[in-house]
Design brief:
Helices cover 20% and strands 34% of the residues. The chain is of the alpha+beta class.
């Protein structure tokens, strides 16, 4: 086998690993990459703050830049846990159903499209289970890779989907162009808001000290300390 064939075989092997991992449900996820999702160059975000969505389906995950994200309900919810109520189901919310809407440029989300299509086909069968009915969504609001806020939505489903064309009135015909977008509405069972900045502030570093019982262990001594032979 020559050098060129070896490179080709190696490349195909790597591709095969990713394909197999996707089909069997392994999550090849890099959270840092998710928060750095690239927005289209012509889109301007104030202070460079933009949104990325991570969709987790049973067959794989999808990360995509989001142009519009709106929480339509959920502030009055609290995800219940055993500490709140021993009988509470895991990741369930009370009082209010968490819902939100997303808008993104068409493309790059075959799993999400399948979830929307299956929801449309089975909308009259409320109790019917189908492969892409339930999934999880995490929303990252970030600037230059630093997450400012994130929101975890559990056991979500698509309740509305449409394709729309955006333009700045007649300016679309005179230079600014058009944007063809997906518009989704989601309803979820669980909702957890996260505040990474506060989490970092609450981290307390422990002092690196040793007790008297450790003094006999020379590997615990700091630099400059040596044993003195009588």
């Amino acid at each position: 086998m020559n050098h060129k064939n070896a490179i080709t075989m190696t490349t195909l092997s790597v591709i095969a690993v990713f394909v197999i991992a996707s089909f069997v449900g392994f999550k090849i996820v890099d959270i840092d990459a998710a928060t750095m999702a690239v927005q289209p160059e012509k889109f301007v975000f104030v202070e460079k703050i933009s949104t990325t969505a991570l969709f987790e389906f049973r067959d794989g995950t999808e990360m995509v830049p989001i142009q519009q994200f709106t929480q339509t309900s959920g502030f009055g919810t609290k995800t219940l846990s055993g500490a709140d109520d021993p009988k509470a189901p895991s990741a369930k919310t009370g009082r209010q159903t968490p819902t939100f809407t997303l808008e993104k440029i068409v493309g790059s989300t075959p799993y999400l499209y399948e979830a929307a299509d299956q929801a449309q086909k089975n909308q009259l069968n409320a109790g019917f289970e189908y492969p892409y009915r339930i999934f999880d969504v995490t929303i990252f609001v970030a600037i230059d890779g630093t997450v400012l806020r994130s929101f975890e939505y559990h056991d979500c489903r698509v309740t509305s989907y449409a394709v729309s064309t955006r333009s700045d009135n007649e300016e679309g015909y005179t230079g600014k162009g058009f944007a063809v977008v997906d518009q989704f509405t989601f309803e979820c069972v669980g909702y957890v808001p996260l505040n990474p900045s506060m989490d970092k502030m609450n981290v307390v570093e422990k002092a690196k000290t040793i007790g008297s019982s450790d003094l006999s262990q020379r590997n615990q001594w700091g630099p400059g300390f040596t044993s003195k032979t009588p």
